[in-house]
Amino acid sequence: MPHWPTTPLTERFGLRYPIIQAPMASAATAELAAAVANAGGLGSYGFAMTPVDRLADEIAAIRRLTNQPVNFNFFCHAPPVPDPERDQQMADRLAPLYAAFDLSPPAGPAAAPYPTFSEAHLEILLPALPTIVSFQFGLPPRFHIEALKAAGAFIIGTATTVEEAVWLVEHGADVICAQGFEAGGHRGTFLRDPAASEIGTLALVPQVVDAVRCPVIAAGGIMDGRGIAAALMLGAAAVQMGTAFLGCPEAKVQPLHRRALHAGTDTRLTKAYSGRSARGIANRLIETLAAHEAEIPDFPLQQHFSRPLNAASALRGSTECLQMWAGQGAPLLRERPAAELLKMLAHEAAALLA
Ligand SMILES: Cc1cc2nc3c(=O)[nH]c(=O)nc-3n(C[C@H](O)[C@H](O)[C@H](O)COP(=O)(O)O)c2cc1C
User: Fold this and answer.
1) Judging by DSSP bridges, how do beta strands 175-179 and 216-219 pair with one another?
2) Which pLDDT value is given to residue 4?
3) Which residue's CA is minimally distant from atom 30 of ligand 1?
4) C-alpha of residue 107 to centroid of ligand 1, in Å
């Protein structure tokens, strides 16, 4: 393996390579995070969809597989505002899709399928002495951040604009993950409308590097050694790659989704699945709601309407309503076990950087 230069993050996090497997709540497995961590990268685990009473067990499952640092990731969105009229409108709008999959429209008012980061999470997290904790959609209150830091954790915040990066540092982040427009999954945007925060990785990373004093992670559209080398040249101290790891057998990904990634040139930003802007491969559900994004229930209430369609789609072997998060680099996907992929990425990037 060629010599890797150290970066402020390889030193701070004790990594062999400045490569982070992105937290991906919908695809998270302990095996994926541990495989990357044990191979010298930073493995991550997205806990956003983990019920609080499962949190300790899932942390223990990761710890059984690795004693290396792992990035624990949470969402900290504002709690949604219920709106029964909007719920009804959504059920009506999606009626043809429910009928196509022989489903009844979901009953009752939409309920949030998972909570925002709270003191309940903190109580379980603190005794686990997390080394790295990252947040999407802003940060939790200052006293949560202080408690995590007192327990020895570094805090990563996700920014999609320079303004968000500066805000995150002012509110306690130690490291910024600069997430470009190309990124798969949810956009971390939290200060302005996502439509006003659509900056590509190539433009965003150097501006964030210039604006903050802390280490910056580049995310969005990075799929191979070329992307890694380019991001480091822009001043990033590490890269965070999500879509690239969806081809690993350790990731929890529907086979249909994985297959679609190879041809995934038509990705869209959509609120159709969760109520918050996220990038995925275009399909019938996304098309159906494309002109009605303003009517979609608050994040994450929209999952009340999309989950049954996603599940039915998977069961029927159809991509029509399947949630297929993907970054714009998806067709560059290579299917490999995570440790092998990580080493291949490191090798490619090191050769270019040399
Ligand atoms: C399937 C999927 C799920 C994701 N889930 C999360 C998540 O739970 N938390 C988070 O902070 N980011 C999440 N992201 C975004 C990633 O952290 C990262 O910003 C993104 O994958 C980078 O772009 P790329 O997919 O082009 O590599 C997700 C991305 C994907 C593709």
Assistant:
1) parallel
2) 78
3) 185
4) 30
Number of C-beta neighbours around residue 37 at 10 A: 26
With 0-12 CB in 10 A as exposed, 13-18 as middle and 19+ as buried, what is 62?
buried
Pocket of ligand 1 (CB under 6 A): 22-27, 46, 48, 73, 136, 158, 179, 182-186, 219-222, 240-244, 325, 327, 329
Ligand 1 centroid to residue 295 C-alpha, Å: 25
Query: Which amino acid, 37?
Result: A
HSE-up of residue 333 (Cα within 13 Å, Cβ side) = 25
Return the pLDDT at 1.
57
CA atoms of 85 and 82, how far apart (whole Å):
9
* Residue having the nearest C-alpha atom to atom 29 of ligand 1: 185
Q: Identify the pLDDT of residue 109.
A: 86
Cis omega (within 30 of 0) on the bond before 115?
A: no
User: Which residues are CB-contacts of 204 (< 8 A; sequence separation ≥ 6)?
Assistant: 160, 161, 162, 178, 179, 180, 181, 220
Written as six digits, the tokens of 124 are 């379980």
Q: Where in the chain is the domain with CATH 3.20.20.70?
A: 8-79+116-251+333-353
Please enumerate in sequence order all residues whose Cβ is within 8 A of that of 26, keeping only pairs 6 or more positions apart, or say none. Answer: 46, 49, 185, 252, 323, 325
Domain 8-79+116-251+333-353, CATH class in plain words: alpha beta
The segments of the chain whose pLDDT lies below 50 read none
B/e letters for 118-140, b = 16+ CB within 10 Å, e = fewer, are eeebbebbbebebbbbbbbbbbb
| CA-CA-CA-CA torsion sign (211, 216, 219, 222) | positive
Please report the pLDDT score of residue 66 as a whole number. 98
pLDDT for position 5? 77
Which runs of consecutive H residues, i.e. helices, occur in the chain?
8-13, 30-38, 52-65, 84-93, 95-100, 119-125, 142-150, 162-170, 201-211, 225-233, 255-262, 284-289, 303-316, 338-353
